[in-house]
Structure formats: C-alpha cells, structure tokens
Specification:
Elements (H helix, E strand, L loop, with lengths): L1 H23 L9 H11 L10 H6 L5 H4 L3 H4 L7 H10 L9
Length: about 100
C-alpha cells in the first residue's frame, strides 16, 4: 500500500506544480519555461554526475528567479526526478548570483 501512497503524493505534487506553472503563463514558473527544464534536465536529474550545467542550461535560465523557486523546492523531486539541491546550485555554477533557500 505504501507504493500507492507514494504515487498519489507524487501525482498531487505534480498537479500542484503544473497548476502553478499554468497560472504563471508563458514565462513558466519563476521565469523557467519548458525549454529551460529540457536544457537543464541532465544536470538536475537525481544521480547526475555532471560537474556543471551545460551552457545551454545557463543560457535558458539566465532570466529565472531562483529565489522564487525556493517556495517550490520541495515539489521538484516529484517532478521528473529532479534533484532540488542540484537545481538550486545552477545559479552559482552559471556565473549568476547564488541563491540560498532558508
């Protein structure tokens, strides 16, 4: 039964993230759209061993509001197996101002 509960929690988290992203409009959630998710996926996936995000990722998130993402950090792992800690390291690894979620 635990597997069913985990799947339900993941589905609810994904739906919540999609609702927030849809409400954010074309710019996506916190200035991150689908192209940025695609460009950064290999760096942010749980278990990734990439030392730094690719330049395409850095370019795609140049206008993102990572401080805004702190509010949604807990949802990231449920969304396509994203490692929230690696995701929040992108700014510092892309020569942008690092963000610290508190």
């Amino acid at each position: 039964m635990a597997g069913g509960r985990k799947a339900t929690v993941s589905a609810v988290a994904l739906v919540a993230l999609l609702v927030v992203a849809a409400a954010a409009g074309a710019a996506g959630l916190c200035g991150i759209d689908q192209s940025a998710l695609t460009a950064c996926r290999s760096y942010c996936t749980v278990g990734s061993r990439e030392a730094r995000p690719k330049q395409a990722c850095c370019d795609a998130v140049a206008g993102a509001d990572f401080a805004c993402l702190c509010s949604y950090k807990y949802l990231l792992k449920s969304y396509n197996n994203i490692d929230p800690n690696r995701a929040m390291q992108i700014p510092g690894n892309c020569n942008m101002r690092p963000v610290s979620c508190k």
